[in-house]
Amino acid sequence: MDSSLSYDDLASWDDLGPGAVEVEDPNDIKKVDPRPLPSDIVELDNSIAELEAQIIALKLQREHLLNQRALIARVPAEILCRIFELGVDGAIDLLSTINLVSRQWREIALSHSILWSYIVLDSSWGWRIPSFMRKMRVHLQRSKESKLYIELDLHINDLEDAQTIMAELKPHLSRCYSLYVFAADWPRARTVREYASELGPALESFFFSINTTEYDMDEPVCILSQPCPLLNYVMLEQAPLQSINIATPALRQLNLVRHHQCHTSQRIAYSFKELVAILTNSRLKWFNMRWGFLNVDNIEDAFRASPVVYELPDLNGLVFNVVDSASISLFLDTFSLPALEGISVHSGDDIHWITRVALYPEQFPSLRLLDLRNFNFSGAGLAPFVRALYQLPQLTGLGLAQPSTGIIGARFFDVLAAAPESAGEWLLPRLEALCLQSCADISGYELLQVVTARRGAADVANISFLKLSECFLVSSEALDRLTTLVTTVRLL
Asked: Which parts form a coiled-coil structure per UniProt (predicted)?
């Protein structure tokens, strides 16, 4: 047998599919007949071809008739446009599909400018900037006077490409309501700034991300050059507060986060003086800091015997994720938060900040929800933590996630279940919701102990909401009993 390989051996794996495919041999002697086909067979072949063509035509006619009587064809163009608008807002690429479905849909898409108001340069474009420019010009033309959603990823493009894109966008930036800028460095950010003089009057949402490090000596730049009276949402990723060094009277949400691709322990330093200026000149409702700390080098009030306390009348939500306790305490010392309803904190074992909240509860009269992550419930810190909770009887919801040792332990639940006869008073007497996440020791029986002890007791609320997420040792028996006692039980 010849051992040499041939092309027929390629893509002929024995274990792929139900069996080997038999290839028809064109020289098979059983099928080779040099004589011309008889006329009756030729007629049959012609009839078969005609019938096949007729079948294709009938199938097309059937599809056409079905399309004519389809319910979607009776939907008014205004409603279809609204459906298209919602779809494109969730998936921008949907517009290309809409244009290909039918002539009617394409006419609707062309007649409604808002569908063309999305301009996105992402990594999928690669180096095909000329193609992107052509598409962007079409969208700018067809969007007419509609407000624009603009997303620019300038990581893979050089400065010349960034300049070309921004020069084309410049006359239209006055109608941009949402701007996302992902810059590889400050020179690219400056390029955006140079062409963004028209940006501001319609801007409502601003996201700015830059790949900087603590060794980056470039001077930060503020892309926004004029007041933004409608700006209500800002997210800065790895960017300093100088990036929004403008008036933001309508600001409602401020997010300061580390770059999502950063995997080191590095935290971002934010000037507390600049933060105070931003917060006190806006009506903020939500503040989120992730992987950051506050720098007080340029603020004098922090070192006074009686520091000035600023009121943030509308702030109702605070999130400090991987932020040191000292920075959290400084924030809480500086601001009075009469509308604060919930605070979420991941600060490690140091809970000095919650002691601060407990000592001055009058600055947080609306506080109802406390969410803690990575706290050590097994150490000596549990005692001051429980004492602090005694000073916050108004709390109605408590969340405990990912304790630093992996477990919460039975002691905390014993205190929650302890009646005034043994503990002096109920801990968190208004508590209605208890949520646990990534707690390795939760079996459900400790929760059953708390629920049962508080159920129907005087001067204490019933537990009416339980959520257990990634708690894999929960007993099915305990869960069944909890379900009968608690109004809402969720196991995720």
From this structure: 41-68
**Among 31-40, 78-87, 339-348, where is mean pLDDT lowest?**
31-40
Tokens of 307: 């520091």
Reported as a pLDDT band with limits 50, 70 and 90, residue 75 is confident
Q: How many residues does the chain have?
A: 492
- Are the C-beta atoms of 372 and 401 separated by less than 8 Å? yes
**Alpha-carbon distance 146 to 118, whole Å?**
10
CA-wise closest residue to 375 among 465, 436, 442, 293: 436
| Predicted confidence (pLDDT) per residue in 96-126, tens digit | 888 888 888 888 889 888 999 999 998 888 7
